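A quick aside before the break. I want you to see a complete sequence-to-structure record at least once, exactly as it would be stored in a machine-readable document. Don't worry about memorizing anything.
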Amino acid sequence: MTAVLKRDIIGDIRRKAAALKKKIVLPEGEEKRTLKAASILRREGLCIPILLGDPEAARRTAAENGTDLSGIEIVRPVEDAKFAEYAAQYHELRKHKGITAEEARKAVAEPLVYGVMMLHNDRVDGFLSGADHATADTVRPALHIIKPAPGVRTISSFFIMIFPSPEQGDEGVLIMGDCAINIDPVPVKLAAIGISSARMAKVLAGIEPRVAFLSFSTNGSTEHELAAAVKEAVRIAKEKAPDLAIDGEMQADAALVPEIGRKKFPGSRVAGRANVLVFPDLQSGNIGYKLVQRLTGASALGPIMQGFAKPVNDLSRGASVEDIVDMACVTALQSDPSLR
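That is the input. The structure line, written in tokens, reads:
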């Protein structure tokens, strides 16, 4: 008999998003998966999707794939009433980098930039892209325009890994970060990634976070500068977030397997019980979440971005229609201050 998860995380996220009625801009408005996702979002009342692109091309692609776009706003940036205003704003934001007024107009004509400008002006509540673009294409305009939230030094990301049964992970759930943004974070940034991932995981996944900073060493078992950097990140994180259960450095088995955790890291509140895994660098994080996803059949919700002043999210280019729908709902939740 297939085990049933105690928490319907995706269902909870969708229900909460539906209650908020947030506007989410999808700049890849001619991409067929995005069009199908927008149709579902509108039909099920999960959010108010706004598409960017050529309306005729979008409707043609939708018709070819049996997708209903009725009632969905489709904005072509260069024909939008706010285009000149947004171009002028973008020029003002970027002229210190040598961007001319004409270059600003060309930049804002691009849907990914225009969508971020819509968010900047509170015309929408969140931005979601990446089905047909690299992560850098999504993140770059957001860094230029939205910028990090006050007091935030590190933009990062995490995945919610949802396993087929509650025997895997922590009742079927693990949080993994950073798997998409920071290539080789220094200890202070690694600490920030762990803290941010824990706090956002509590909001989105409803878990009480227990954060393990991963390494090839457990509790000083190996003396090496890489393990020492992780240990320093743990020290900083504990200092900055004394309310959170944080420990490390530790190996993955010590983090996840109770008997190994007790043996290798006695007295730890986290070892053997971790539900938030912080990888030391992007290589290990990206490899780790994809191995877990492919070998266990887990669903990977993300990458969920954190640290921006307003909600900006990225998609894997392999994202399914359902992935886009779920990430639009996550983006909607991130726009509600009461849920942060």
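Two observations worth writing down. Confidence is low (pLDDT under 50) at residues 1-6. The longest strand covers residues 299-306. We'll return to this after the break.
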